[in-house]
Design goal:
about 160 residues, about 65% helix, two-stranded antiparallel sheet
Length: about 160
C-alpha cells in the first residue's frame, strides 16, 4: 500500500485515544497526593513511583511513535525516566497535554504505508498497527502498576 487511507488514519487515532486514556488514568492516580506520595516507591526491588510510571509511559509512547511510525530521529533517556522525581502531577499533566496534541498532529501526517510497513521493534519485525497495539498494551499495563502502587501507598499510610 503506498498511501495512508482514511480508515488507517482513523484506526491510528483510535489507538492513540486508547493510549491517551491509559496515560490519563495513570496521571489520575496522583490526584490529591503530596509530593512525597507521588514519589513513593513500594518496598520491593525494581518498583516505580506513580510519578515515574507517568513520566516513563509518556516518554516511551512519544519516542516510539515519533521514531518508528513518523520516521523522526531521536533518542530516549530511560535512566532519567526511571529516576524522575516530581513536585506534583500538575506540570506532568500539562506536559502530557502538549505531547498528546503533538502526537495527534504527527499521526495525522503519517507517511504513506506507515501502518503497513514493518519496523524493527524490540528485535521483532512488526507492522505499524502492531506497534500501536504494543504501545496501547504497554500503557494499559502501567495503569495497573499505577493503581496498585496507589493502593499500596494508601495501605502503608493507614498502617502508620
Amino acid at each position: 500500500m503506498n498511501e495512508v487511507t482514511m480508515e488507517q488514519k482513523e484506526l491510528a487515532e483510535v489507538f492513540l485515544e486508547r493510549i491517551a486514556a491509559s496515560i490519563d488514568r495513570i496521571l489520575a492516580t496522583m490526584d490529591g497526593l503530596t509530593q512525597d506520595d507521588i514519589n513513593w516507591r513500594p518496598p520491593a526491588e525494581k518498583t516505580n513511583s506513580l510519578y515515574v510510571l507517568g513520566v516513563h509511559t509518556i516518554a516511551y509512547t512519544a519516542f516510539v511513535i515519533s521514531t518508528k511510525l513518523c520516521g523522526k530521529s531521536g533518542t530516549r533517556d530511560a535512566e532519567a525516566e526511571f529516576s524522575a522525581v516530581g513536585e506534583s502531577v500538575g506540570p506532568l499533566r500539562m506536559s502530557w497535554q502538549l505531547q498528546r496534541k503533538q502526537l495527534s498532529e504527527e499521526m495525522a501526517k503519517l507517511p504513506p504505508g506507515a501502518l503497513d510497513k514493518k519496523y524493527d521493534y524490540t528485535n521483532r519485525n512488526v507492522s505499524g498497527i502492531e506497534v500501536l497495539l504494543i504501545l496501547a498494551r504497554h500503557a494499559h499495563e502501567h495503569v495497573g502498576h499505577a493503581e496498585l502502587t496507589r493502593d499500596l501507598l494508601k495501605a502503608s499510610k493507614a498502617a502508620k
